[in-house]
Amino acid sequence: MTTYMTSTTDYAAARTATLSAATDLYGAGSTDYNQAAPAWAGVTVGSLPSGRVPATP
Q1: 10-40 pLDDT per residue, tens
Q2: pTM for this structure?
Q3: Dmax of the chain from CA atoms?
């Protein structure tokens, strides 16, 4: 992850970094990307990807 993050990376940048890593490693439409994006939205960092419905507890 040092390719994507530094010691000063904040939450918004960490979201970008993890999504970039998922894209680079597995592709933008991959399961990993599609699980990471809503996970960040679930902790109110970034928004839910379009077309996704938030899970209800």
Answers
A1: 999 999 999 999 999 999 889 999 899 989 9
A2: 0.78
A3: 35
